[in-house]
Fold:
Amino acid sequence: MPKPPAYNSLWQVRSDAWSSLEESATQLVLAGAQHRPVEQLGDAIQGLLDVLGPIERFWAFPGIGTFQKVRRLFTAGKYDRLAALVTDINYALATDSFRTIRAGDLDADDDSFDRVVKPMEQVRKDRPYFEVLIVEDMSEPQERALLEEMRRWRRPDDPFTYEIVVLHSLEDALMAARLNFRLQACVVRRRFTHRSRHDSSSLQQFTDLIVADDLMAHSPDDRAQILARALARIRPELDLYLMTEISVEELAGRLSHHYRRIFHTREGSLELHLSILDGVAARYRAPFFSALRSYSQRPTGVFHALPISHGKSIVDSRWIKDMVDFYGLDIFLAETSATCGGLDSLLEPTGPLREAQQLAAETFGSRHTYFVTNGTSTANKIVVQALVQPGDIVLVDRNCHQSHHYGLMLAGAMVTYLEAYPLNEYSMYGAVPLAEIKQKLLTLRRAGKLDQVKMLLLTNCTFDGIVYDVGRVMEECLAIKPDLIFLWDEAWFAFARFHPVYRPRTAMRAARTLIEKLRLPEYRASYEAQAEEIGAIDAADDDTLLKRRLIPDPARARVRVYSTQSTHKTLTSLRQGSMIHVTDQDFSQKVEETFHEAYMTHTSTSPNYQILASLDLGRRQAALEGFELVQKQIENAMRLRDAVDHHPLLSKYMRCLTTADLIPAEYRSSGIDQPLRSGLPNMIKVWEQDEFVLDPSRVTIYIGATGIDGDQFKRGQLMDRYGVQINKTSRNTVLFMTTIGTTRSSVAYLIEVLVTIARDLEAQLADMSPNERAAHELKVLRLTAPSAPLPDFSGFHPSFQDANGQPTPEGDVRRAFYLSYNDSYCEYLTPEEIEQRVENGEQVVSTTYVTPYPPGYPVLVPGQVFSPEILAFMRSLDTPEVHGYRADLGYRVYVDKALEIAAPGANRRPEAAPESR
Ligand SMILES: Cc1ncc(COP(=O)(O)O)c(C=O)c1O
Structure:
């Protein structure tokens, strides 16, 4: 029996059930032939049919008719025929070959489609296949007639082929949207019911997605609208079509933003068929990839500085022929820098590249999307430069990626660092609590500097998978500062758009939701109720504003949201392929031009077209199969978690960290410790209400009990011995990321490797002498004891702070950074010397970023003062890599003279020192 559906894995339960059914049916035949008792096998088959019963109606293949036939053969005791049929179905499902079989062929009396299989009329086997949902309460004969009618329109040169699933109710339609990842379109007809006529109790975990109030009380048009909205919440990419008998024109006016097309029922199904194909073709289009491909096939004479173009410098070379052997010729045929002849310019796109970016904007739910060919490191710098002027205050998580530190430094921002909550036990940070953000904003308000505040910059989700309540953060901040701009670094989160539970916590969806909310009369009413209670926010005291959830003034708040995503990290793209998504209500008025300048500043004039084409294809894939891939990714992550936590040997040495480990209870109002493990409804609840949630696809394994530290585990064990690549460790943890590229086999291999490591460890422990054992236990003790507390940001030296008005924490990192270009202002001090000075009450100031890896965030930034906590923390580290620290010389710090020169009001012209760079 397959396990009951634990986490949105019905598709997996389904495929396991068909495999088990084949196995049991085959056994049944054998047992019969050998006159062995068959009761037990019979019970197993009955159980499997009961599992499949409620699920099969959501899929076109093998189709509910065929499934009923399987049941009939079983009940009638025709086990040979049952086994043959089930084997064929399972084979077709497992190999995806059902795509070339006509649904319904299996209903033929021959039973086994090995004998009746007809390749779909003139079907090209490589033609993409999808399924279309039709929602209408119709009888079986009507259903059959409709399917036949739709099939009649197929043509050999159709670009795609599809089969149809008919369901009768809203409840069924929503479950299908959730379960059947092959659906690409949904046709809503006027007559459908609210409740399913089937018993769906085994699918209960999906039923809380169902619209609560009874639809039947609404008019048919309203019902169509409610269904469209509910479907779009689950699968915004589905093409929705409405077929109606009355007043199409009027409906088109009212419902056209929910439905791609509205048809009159009597006008027949050809238009519908063509529209369905056209809708999928619109997402399938990859304009830049297509342009590059056709360009690469044209003979060209290249007199551009690009010898590799069309492979010219390689194919006739005597010495680098293996380059073609390895990469293949196509990649060189596509090497070009042409901006015309069907291609386009990244710096000023007007053709296929522009279209590709527009398609990406649709897919990722932004108003504008820009492709970036040098990773999110560059994307971040572009956004910051486009929006921040020297002197603007930017609030930023200190643990953000280095590209922000450098970007803000280059932009000349006054940087206010925000503190994330620490996880000392694992030597890592969580995310920045909303209370900390509000507190910092209110401090700036008190100092009269709110006008200078430009941007809030946060990482969503963090490397370790902590996800913000993006919408809530923006609402509350906009209540205090209505024109604040948000940059959400979603380097790790591009995939999140394609799963209904993740999506609301993405920057682009939250921005859209906020724009819509701000327009609602109910929202204005809530704001007015708040004003009634606490008066104007500008006049309310800090305490009041900190304690309550704030609603921004809809008349003043502007939604200005940017997100940067490393497409290459979580979706399909060549390395460095990244996107900037923009939903900024003031973009065209205030930003477009500076954005263009910033884009020009950081973008190569020779961008890599292969990367751009891969972004275009990555977008196509996400638009057509993102939902399926992300579901499978989560499922694989849960398999990994289960395998580690339930394995008797592994669980002795390793443990997957849970939501409760990584997010303190104060940020989890739901009180649920392991959301996904306790079922999808719990996960939905937690993702709706908790301040922070954990992305289940990131699996952090605690390895303290092995006595091997994270870095050694990664290099010495995983990488060198077994070729397993990971990219993040802490002192006592290793992070395994599952992505859309993770397969069940790769999870199985990882488990195999972990078990081997644990076995080796067991063997070593058994052979250890008492002294060796004591040394090992000491190592374990060191790894399992909490580390020295992670140090807070100690503060900027006053020379780099704003001298005007009340002192506030922001600092001028650019000034602090460039001052050190003059060597005579700097000296190296050993940690001991610094400790001595700090003890004497002197201020020692770093000239540069000091970043130990791991954990990988700067413990010191230019202009920051050393604190006893920082020194203690650095002392406790045994990481081999500390950027910005020279083991031979020590820390580079400012001499007093430099700090005097840098002090506000001092003559800051650097001396023309000979050693200045
Ligand atoms: C949070 C965050 N932002 C940005 C980046 C940089 O992204 P890319 O590697 O695409 O340049 C990273 C890279 O690890 C990151 O972790």
Notes: Confidence is low (pLDDT under 50) at residues 1-5, 111-123, 910-917. Residues 375-377, 401, 403, 459, 463, 489, 491, 566, 578 surround pyridoxal-5'-phosphate (CB under 6 Å).
